[in-house]
């Protein structure tokens, strides 16, 4: 969409289907070029001045239509489409997709195996909490995970609500093998801010990159 016009994705925005398809085609070209097999299909915002409850049904219908189109196109490229709930309490009050429950229900209606849940634990904690249960419940749907401490949205070892060493061990126990995206704003220098990762590797007797010292 057009960020200067207040758009943040188009997948659920009625009347913008053609623009969504055009944007998706461009995203596929970029993804193919850089070898990235996953594309975030942003839902978009409730139209300015509209009542969310009044437009929710039409937006969900549009979202499902566009997701089915995207799934077919991405299947031809052997790519995965991702949908991410973004909290509407702090980050984006008008964003349409807000909770993992809403995302899971929509993905079930679409019914395509190459569409997955992009679960950002920052947004999930703000909207619902109950992270262990949500990770276990929605694990089969998860295609990508993002992390940031709550409420500051900084490094996972910064002061806040979330116990990331516990969460990482839970992900390991569930068998998660995908990427964990660092979707946070560093408090200072980026490399210095990655000290949490070095500490975590050391606590797990791992070398940088996640390989076991014992294996070497």
Could you give the topology of this structure?
Blueprint: H1 17-34, E1 38-40, H2 52-76, E2 80-83, H3 100-110, E3 115-120, H4 121-127, H5 131-138, E4 142-147, H6 164-174, E5 180-182, H7 190-193, H8 195-203
Helix pairs in contact: 1-2, 2-3, 5-6
Description of the molecule:
The protein has a domain of 143 residues: TIM Barrel. The model has no long low-confidence stretch (mean pLDDT 94). Helix 2 crosses helix 3. It is an alpha/beta fold and 216 residues long. The protein contains 8 helices and 5 strands.
Secondary structure tally, helices: 8
How far do the termini sit from each other?
Answer: 48 Å
Radius of gyration: 18 Å
Second-tier CATH architecture of the domain at 3-145: Alpha-Beta Barrel
Q: Report the principal-axis shape.
A: globular
- Secondary structure tally: strands: 5
Helical content stands at 40-55%
In CATH, what is the class of the domain at 3-145?
A: Alpha Beta
> What integer is the average pLDDT?
94
Q: Key features?
A:
216 residues; alpha/beta; 8 helices; 43% helix; Xyl_isomerase-like_sf; Xyl_isomerase-like_TIM-brl; hydroxypyruvate isomerase activity; Sugar_Epim/Isomerase; HYI isomerase
């Amino acid at each position: 969409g057009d960020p200067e016009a207040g758009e943040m994705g188009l997948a659920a925005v009625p009347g913008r289907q053609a623009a969504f398809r055009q944007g998706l085609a461009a995203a596929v070209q970029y993804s193919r070029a850089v070898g990235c097999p996953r594309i975030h299909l942003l839902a978009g915002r409730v139209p300015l001045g509209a009542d969310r409850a009044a437009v929710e049904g039409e937006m969900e219908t549009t979202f499902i239509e566009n997701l089915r189109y995207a799934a077919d196109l991405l299947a031809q490229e052997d790519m995965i489409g991702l949908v991410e709930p973004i909290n509407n309490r702090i980050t984006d009050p008008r964003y349409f997709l807000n909770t993992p429950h809403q995302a899971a229900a929509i993905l079930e209606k679409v019914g395509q195996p190459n569409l997955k849940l992009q679960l950002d634990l920052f947004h999930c904690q703000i909207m619902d909490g109950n992270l262990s249960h949500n990770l276990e419940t929605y694990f089969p749907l998860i295609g990508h995970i993002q992390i940031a401490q709550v409420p500051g949205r900084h490094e996972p070892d910064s002061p806040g609500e979330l116990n990331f060493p516990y969460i990482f061990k839970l992900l390991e126990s569930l068998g998660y093998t995908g990427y964990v995206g660092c979707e946070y704003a560093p408090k200072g220098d980026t490399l210095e801010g990655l000290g949490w990762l070095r500490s975590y590797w050391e606590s797990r007797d791992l070398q940088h990159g996640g390989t076991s010292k014992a294996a070497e």
